[in-house]
Structure formats: structure tokens, C-alpha cells
Design goal:
Strand content of chain A: under 5%
Number of helices of chain B: 32
Oligomer: heterodimer
Radius of gyration of chain A: 19 Å
Helix content of chain A: 40-55%
Largest interface: A-B, 35 and 49 residues
CATH topology of one domain in chain B: Rossmann fold
Largest sheet of chain B: 6 strands, mixed
Largest sheet of chain A: none
Distance between the termini of chain A: 54 Å
Strand content of chain B: 5-15%
Shape of chain A: rod-shaped
Number of strands of chain A: 0
Number of helices of chain A: 1
Number of strands of chain B: 8
């Protein structure tokens, strides 16, 4: 693993993280809640599996 | 009143082509969410205190024949004459006022068998809606323990609707309930209630106007007419659907006439309902046992005592923090060791380079530093869960009411403030149970001052740096932790007092809060809630904190310094270092340098990011990447060689974090709940301003005193 490859891989990971954080920030503007990070219940919960 | 055949048919037989929709309603703390979870198999949060559910939840249950049934769990309400935002959600869904929710076909009304008469008031109002209703009499076991016998068949006869005896906690009565819910037709209530003669013409006239001018269905119109006449505040009853001018005029004319005659129309309606309920209750309830003090009453004599109550509260809090420190230590050390082993392994497995540096310093150093606190988070939530499920939290609210009344708040604000110890966001949402808008706003403004679980890693890191090793007794660490929690609570009370006397003036409200009976904690539910919280903490560490740690690594590693520069010089000239240097003049009077400044900036995303930032910043300059963060921080120095993290600086940092508004998610939720940017901006300004001033005073006074 060359130094250049390591640098490129690291920068790609940084770009990926930055893109994800920016997308997350914009998503929050449309629906400003904690994104369930804090354990707040979602407004609509998915249905439970059918019981036998 | 006769129901037109086409409407009756629609109501009693939900269309066979779509899933029937049931609304689950009842008084607060009567077991709605427990029943909802039992029916749907979901795990919505439950607690033995009122006001846990403040927004509707939707789930799917299955009938005995496997047919899907939609169930909407609604916030608890004592009456359809809603006084608080959470009760308004229930009223609006039942009256079909919510654009985002279809009006339920049928209503599942749940009541507490130990408080039958009071619970029947809401049932009585719901029967006015003319919808098929199934009545679930919950907590039959508690009623039997209290010497009460509820004659279910008599109740069924009196109301003319299916009545199911149930113990939702133990799953008893669920099969009978599902059979009833599966019925293709349900009888409409035999609703024997005479509206007082003086008020009946007004009800008829208002109903007619609501049908013709406000386009309401006949039964809904009658229910709304009764609600309008039950409350003096017609604007509050109308909510988001203002009355047509003609309807408002009719209402005003009747009210004026009654006022001139001296008739208390609202009181007459309420009393008339209670008379009807009283007759049913007398027929249905049999007192078969002793009526002396219950075990709950005996415990309450101590736990809510004006002196002993505080002693019990203090002992509970001390025990909680002792367990956080002692029980969590072995697993924390284990996580620390595993993190170090992983970092060493990566270091040996990969050649020197940026990727290796990112993995060891950014990912393992940043995320590992936060994951280490998982055991303490789990213990905190398990302890809070135990206290909630036993019913002690409601007693704590009762004790605190005396103190809170002095600052202009009441015990109803206590539950939101208490919830804020887990996270300010559910705490702020829980303020929907508060009727008075000013009280609600004050509670929202001060809720983030309560120390949330995101502050816990910061406090623990600072306490570890402040009182390192085994030289300091455990009680000292516990005392510092309790002091921080108490400081946040006192700060919240202080600002509530200030706001109630300046910006949001108002008389101290009376508190009416139900003290639920003590129950044995359901360890399974508490453990599940704890694991859920733990999973959320890990998810946050693996997403938000990981992302920020990666960015921070880049910001602290770039732009690259020329070869031969030290790690310290590299960090200083990096993007993060430059931002820290930019902030340093503002925070230097608090004893913080630019490196701490980087942590303050990044932790605005979330407070615990401070810990991961310290991991990235100090591990980046440490000679050994695997050195525990605490040791790296203790080795950090000012340019003149003075240690950076002195006990005074650690203490000041904790004070800063108690008061600073370092949470973007909280700002967003305050904006949503207040429907304005004004209040979240004000909140950020006053909290961060207070944090700076108090930190300045503490650091400068401490320095002057030679600390």
C-alpha cells in the first residue's frame, strides 16, 4: 500500500463523510427533529410482523 | 337521536376492502401504550406516570383471523375539552380535524378499573361521537387488590357497547379484545344521557349550524356543540378549525342570554354528565374489601413527606451516580483495552501513511473515546427506567412541585425537565402536556439546562482528568457529578424564575397531577428500553460522531506542514488549529486554549463530540497513539510549559458545558415547537452567554484564590 494510495483513500473517505454530513444537515431542515438519535419515537411506526 | 341509516351503516361496518382503523384513547397513565404494544407487538415507551405519549403513534395489530387492524395510540386526555397541546391531538384525531390522519372507524376506549368514575367522563364524551366503541377496563388486578369489584356485564348493559376486562401488563383479556375488534359489526352505544333542559335548545341550534355552515357530520356536530358549551373558551375548543360566523353568533347569543340569567351553562353540562356517570358507577362498582390506606399510601407517607421526601430523593440520586461510577468501571476498562489493542494492531498491520493515521487517530481515537462511555449510559437509563416504572418519578414531581412553585412553574413542568436528563428533545416534546402557553414556553427555554446524557461523557472525561487515579475517594467524584446535575437544575429554576417575572409574566399555576399506584418494575421492559438507548448511542457513535471524527482528522492533518515539523506544529497550522486560534481570544479568559476551542466548535453538532475531538486533537500530538486520552490530555501544555488541563480548567469546562447550548438538534426542535426562530436564537444566546460569564467568573476567581 503506497503512501499516495493511502492519501487518496483517506481523502476519499473524508469526502464521503462530508457529503453524508451535508445531506444529513439538509434532511434535518425538511424534518427538524433529532433523527431518532435521542430515542424520540417516530411519528409513524412500521407495523409489527404478523403473529401466528 | 336517530342516526340516518346510511351513516349508521358506514360507522358500524368499516369497509371490507380496507383495514379498519381503531383509535386507542383514555385518561393519562391508564395503560394505553402498554395495550398498544401488546396489540401491535411494538415497543413504544411506557412509564408509570402521566404524559409519556404526547403524539399519536400508528401500528398494525392482527385479528384472531389474521386480518390487519390499524391502531392509533393517542395521547392521554381527561376530557375532549382539550386544555393542552397533547390533549388537542386526541380531540382533533377523534373529531376528524387532522388532515394527516383519517378519522378512526372505531374507538378503543381504555379505562383504569381503580378510577372508574373519573375515567368514565371521557368515555361518556366519546360516546357522543356516535362511533362504535369498545370499552377496555384495564388494571383489573389492581382494582381487585384495592377491594373493588367491577361488574363488567352490568357496565356493558348500561352503555350498550362491548366491555372487556383486561390486564394489559400481563396480557390478560387480549384474546377477548381481539375477538371483539374482529367483529364486522359493533353495536352503537345506548347513550342514556339527558342534556339539561335549559341547554338542550342551544345544543340543537348549534348542531344544526355546525352541520349546515361548518359542514360537520351530525354526530360530530352534536359532540362539538356539547364541547363548545362545556368550555368558556370557544376559540380553544375550535382549535385549528375556526367556527363559521353564524355558528359563533349563535354561541355568543346563547352565552349572553345565560350570563344575563346567571346560568352556569358549562357547570350544568359537566354536572349533568357526572350525575349520569355516578348512576352507572353506583350500579357497576362494588366495594368488597377494606377501604383503609393502600400500600402505595403507606409508602407515600414517607416518600412525599416534606422532609423525608427530600432525603429519599437525595439518596436515590446518590445511589444512581455511585452505580454509574462503580459498576461501569470494569467494562469501561475493557473497552479501553480493546480500543488500544485494535489501534496497535492497525498500526502494525498497515504501513505509515494518511489512511493509517485516519483509522488510528480519527476513527479509533475519536469513536472509541465515545464508545467507552456506553456502560455508564446503559446504567443511567436502566436506573431511570426502574424509577419510572415503579411510579417513583411522579412522586419526585410531587416533591419538586413545592420548589418549582416558588419559581413560577408547577409539577407538570417537572416531567419534561426530568426527561431532559436523557435528552432535551423528548423533554421539549413532553411540554405539550402543559396547558398554559407561557408556562410551556418557559419550560422549553430552560429544559436544555438539565444535564442530558450527551453531557455525561464530557463530565466523566473532565472528572477523570480533574481527579485522576485512585487517590480521590469515589464519593468526591460522585459529589462533583451531583453538583453538575444540581447546578443545571438550579440554573433551569433560576432562569424560569427570571422569565416568569420578566418576559413571560404569569401567575404560578396550580398543579393537578395523578400519583399512580406503585408497581413492581417490569425488568424486561426496562432492559429493552435500556438496550434501545444503548443501540441509539452506538448508532450515533457509528454515524454522526464517526463522520465528524473523520472530518476533524482532515481538518487537523491538512494543510500539511513541511517535513520535519512536530505534531504540535502540524496541528497548530492545520485548518482546525487556525479555527481554534481564531476563537482563542474569546476563550482564553476562561482558561481554554485553541485546542479546547476546536472541541467547543465541533461539539456544537453534539456535546459528546467534544470527547471524540479531544481524542483526535490530543492523540494526534501524542507520541503513542494508543495512550489513554486522559493521559494525553494531562500531558498537554501551554506554550510557556504550564499544564493545560489543571483541575480549575477541567472544572470550568464542566461549568461551561452545563450552561452552553451545544446542540443543533435541540435548536431545531425548539424552532418546531415554538414555530419561530426567535425563541431558539434567544435560547442559544442566553445559555451560551451565561456559560461564558459563569466560566469566566469561576476561572478568574479560582486563579485569584491560587487554584
Amino acid at each position: 500500500m503506497t503512501t499516495e494510495f493511502q492519501t487518496l483513500s483517506a481523502l476519499a473517505l473524508v469526502a464521503l463523510a462530508a457529503t453524508w454530513l451535508v445531506r444529513r444537515a439538509f434532511a434535518k431542515k425538511q424534518n427538524p427533529d433529532c433523527g431518532s438519535d435521542c430515542g424520540c419515537a417516530p411519528k409513524k411506526v412500521s407495523s409489527a410482523p404478523r403473529r401466528p | 337521536m336517530a342516526l340516518p341509516s346510511h351513516i349508521s351503516s358506514t360507522l358500524a361496518h368499516p369497509s371490507s376492502t380496507r383495514t379498519p382503523v381503531y383509535a386507542l384513547v383514555g385518561n393519562p397513565n391508564c395503560g394505553k401504550t402498554t395495550l398498544f404494544n401488546a396489540l401491535t407487538g411494538l415497543k413504544q415507551k411506557v412509564g408509570n406516570y402521566p404524559g409519556v405519549t404526547v403524539e399519536k403513534k400508528i401500528g398494525t395489530a392482527y385479528s384472531q383471523h389474521g386480518q390487519p387492524i390499524t391502531v392509533i395510540d393517542l395521547p392521554g386526555a381527561y376530557s375532549l375539552a382539550a386544555r393542552s397541546p397533547d390533549e388537542a391531538v386526541t380531540r382533533d384525531v377523534l373529531l376528524g380535524r387532522r388532515a394527516d390522519t383519517a378519522q378512526p372507524d372505531r374507538i378503543l376506549c381504555i379505562i383504569d378499573a381503580t378510577n372508574l368514575e373519573r375515567n368514565l367522563y371521557l368515555v361518556h364524551q366519546i360516546l357522543d361521537l356516535g362511533r362504535p366503541v369498545i370499552l377496555v377496563v384495564n388494571m383489573m388486578d389492581l382494582a381487585a387488590a384495592a377491594g373493588l369489584t367491577v361488574r363488567i356485564s352490568r357496565l356493558e348493559q348500561a352503555l350498550g357497547i362491548p366491555v372487556i376486562a383486561c390486564e394489559a401488563v400481563n396480557g390478560k383479556g387480549l384474546i377477548e379484545l381481539k375477538v371483539a375488534m374482529s367483529r364486522p359489526d359493533l353495536p352503537l352505544a345506548r347513550h342514556a344521557w339527558d342534556v339539561p333542559a335549559a341547554i338542550a335548545p342551544a345544543v340543537t341550534e348549534l348542531q344544526a349550524s355546525l352541520v349546515s355552515h361548518d359542514c360537520k357530520a351530525p354526530f360530530i356536530a352534536r359532540a362539538e356543540a356539547l364541547l363548545l358549551l362545556t368550555d368558556h373558551d370557544s376559540v380553544r375548543v375550535a382549535g385549528s378549525t375556526p367556527l363559521h360566523a353564524r355558528t359563533a353568533e349563535i354561541l355568543h347569543t346563547w352565552q349572553k342570554r345565560w350570563e344575563d340569567e346567571g346560568t352556569d351553562w358549562a357547570g350544568a353540562l359537566v354536572n349533568s354528565r357526572y350525575d349520569a356517570i355516578g348512576r352507572i358507577a353506583a350500579e357497576v362498582i362494588l366495594q368488597t374489601g377494606e377501604t383503609g390506606p393502600t400500600p402505595s399510601d403507606k409508602i407515600d407517607a414517607v416518600v412525599t413527606h416534606s422532609v423525608w421526601g427530600w432525603a429519599v430523593l437525595g439518596a436515590v440520586m446518590t445511589l444512581l451516580f455511585i452505580s454509574i461510577f462503580t459498576l461501569a468501571e470494569p467494562p469501561m476498562n475493557w473497552i479501553d483495552d480493546q480500543t488500544a489493542i485494535l489501534a496497535t494492531w492497525v498500526k502494525h498491520a498497515m504501513p505509515d501513511g494518511d489512511l493509517r493515521d485516519l483509522v488510528t487517530t480519527g476513527v479509533i481515537g475519536g469513536v472509541g473515546g465515545v464508545i467507552k462511555f456506553l456502560p455508564q449510559i446503559l446504567i443511567l437509563f436502566f436506573s431511570i427506567g426502574l424509577l419510572e416504572s415503579t411510579g417513583y418519578m411522579a412522586r419526585a414531581a410531587f416533591i419538586m412541585d413545592r420548589l418549582m412553585n416558588r419559581v413560577g412553574l408547577n409539577g407538570k413542568s417537572f416531567i419534561p425537565l426530568l426527561s431532559s436528563h436523557a435528552c432535551a428533545i423528548p423533554g421539549i416534546m413532553a411540554t405539550r402536556t402543559i396547558e398554559d402557553p407561557k408556562d410551556r414556553l418557559v419550560t422549553i427555554l430552560v429544559a436544555p439546562l438539565m444535564s442530558c446524557s450527551a453531557r455525561l461523557p464530557v463530565y466523566l472525561l473532565m472528572i477523570a482528568a480533574l481527579v485522576p487515579g485512585d487517590r480521590v475517594p469515589l464519593l468526591t467524584k460522585v459529589s462533583i457529578m451531583i453538583f453538575m446535575y444540581a447546578l443545571g437544575t438550579l440554573g433551569a429554576f433560576g432562569f424560569a424564575w427570571l422569565f416568569k417575572r420578566t418576559l413571560l409574566k404569569g401567575a404560578p399555576p396550580l398543579m393537578i397531577m395523578e400519583l399512580p399506584p406503585y408497581r413492581l418494575p417490569r425488568v424486561k421492559d426496562v432492559a429493552l428500553n435500556m438496550l434501545e438507548r444503548g443501540a441509539l448511542f452506538l448508532r450515533r457513535a457509528g454515524t454522526l460522531i464517526l463522520g465528524i471524527s473523520i472530518i476533524l482528522w482532515f481538518l487537523s492533518a491538512y494543510p500539511r506542514a513541511p517535513d520535519g515539523t512536530t505534531d504540535q506544529q502540524q496541528l497548530a497550522q492545520s485548518f482546525a488549529g487556525r479555527a481554534g486560534h481564531l476563537l482563542e481570544p474569546a476563550i482564553k479568559p476562561l482558561g481554554f486554549d485553541w485546542q479546547i476551542g476546536i472541541g467547543l466548535i465541533s461539539s456544537f453538532a453534539a456535546r459528546e463530540v467534544f470527547v471524540s475531538t479531544m481524542g483526535v486533537v490530543f492523540n494526534a500530538e501524542a507520541t503513542d497513539d494508543t495512550a489513554p486520552l486522559r493521559q494525553a490530555m494531562l500531558a498537554a501544555k501551554w506554550p510557556d510549559g504550564r499544564p493545560l488541563f489543571t483541575p480549575l480548567v477541567c472544572f470550568t469546562l464542566m461549568i461551561f458545558y452545563v450552561f452552553a447550548m451545544q446542540c443543533m438538534s435541540t435548536i431545531a426542535i425548539v424552532k418546531r415547537e415554538t414555530n419561530s426562530w426567535k425563541w431558539p436564537l434567544f435560547q442559544t444566546a442566553y445559555m451560551t452567554g451565561t456559560a461564558w460569564i459563569l466560566s469566566f467568573v469561576v476561572y478568574q476567581a479560582g486563579t485569584a484564590l491560587g487554584f
